[in-house]
Amino acid sequence: MKQNFTVRHGALDGVEAFLSVAKHRNFRKAAAELGVTPSAISQAVRTLEARIGAALFTRTTRSVGLTEAGERFFSRARPAFEELIAASETARDIGQRPAGLLRLSVPPAVVPTLLEPMIASFCQVYPEIELEIVASGEFVDLAAEGFDAGIRMGDLIAADMVAVRLTPSFPMVVVGSPDYLRHRTAPERIEDLRHHACLRLRRSNGSVAPWRFAKGNKAIEAIVAGPLIAHDYPTLLGAAIQGAGLAQVPSPIASSAIEEGRLEMLLSTFAVTSPGVFLYYPERHQVLPKLRAFIDHIRSQGGDASRKQSHGRQA
Predict the structure, then answer these.
(1) If you ran DSSP here, which 8-state letter would residue 114 be given?
(2) Which candidate, 286, 285, 248, 288, places its Cα nearest to that of 265?
(3) Exposure on the CB side of residue 10, measured as CA atoms within 13 A
């Protein structure tokens, strides 16, 4: 049979009073230490003794001593109570200043473009924060997996999350290498993609993502085919640079390769706009200082590009 180890309501009432009296062997000194009246201390101890079912003190007009039950209770309650106080102080400390472990779940694509430029400065400014970045394309339950926050593109974040904008909106671009395009006619229409090797992304839910476009005010999803399916954009980008095919990726991760001539941008007239990248976390009445420090730091590093905008609820 499963045992119930839940502490009864009020089970700790009177313990602090008992420990103070046991330490001083005096009710008045215990009252002075705790800032209450001697009668309040006496009542708290009597209530504790009644709840336990044993006398904890022997009292005379001149002295206060511990019974055998009191000695045993004192020997085990004192270290437990001190540990409880220490735990409370540790939690309060983390709740009042930037400190402790900060765990973030992020897609691999944002690490080199968004996080790497500010990691060193963040660690220098906040030496008491341990920053853990878990780069994965998988969506996780932040609370269940012990994460403080996640980073994702805005259209992928649930509406019940608090979200903070980290980047402006950006287009999703189709790119191909000069080597790939040297032997093929560059696509000019969305329909032309059926004649090309298109590198595709598998979503965290297991489905292969279609390529998305905008034609005037009309949203279009194109089902494409090709030799490679990957779980993250950096892999698709690298394969496109090597000439494996065309890829549709966020423009920020492709911009340097385009500027260097390693990739060419295609079908730009039909590019669909992503709302941008956001940091998100479950709604709380108070954001812990370690997360607030990270949000403020990444905003300061990004300038106007990282100004706050809510998705669902505002931070």
Answers:
(1) I
(2) 248
(3) 6
Q: Tell me which residue has tokens 């950006």.
A: 170
Phi, psi of 243 (to 5 degrees): 90, 15
pTM of structure:
0.62
- Residues in the chain, overall count: 315
15-96 matches 100-167+276-306 in fold: no
On whether the CB atoms of residues 175 and 271 are closer than 8 A, the answer is no
Q: What is the per-residue pLDDT across 150-183, written as a single tens digit (0 to 9) for each?
A: 999 887 788 888 888 888 899 999 999 999 999 8
Alpha-carbon gap, residue 246 to 229, rounded angstroms: 12
Residue reference for tokens 């220490």: 86
Domain 15-96, what architecture? Orthogonal Bundle (1.10)
One-letter amino acid for residue 79 of the chain: P
Amino acid identity for residue 101 in this structure: L
What CATH superfamily is the domain 100-167+276-306?
Periplasmic binding protein-like II (3.40.190.10)
Backbone angles phi, psi at 215, to 5 degrees: -120, 95
Q: Does domain 170-274 have CATH number 3.40.50.1240?
A: no
Domain ranges (residues) in the chain: 15-96, 100-167+276-306, 170-274
Please name the residue that has the structure tokens 């009445």. Answer: 285
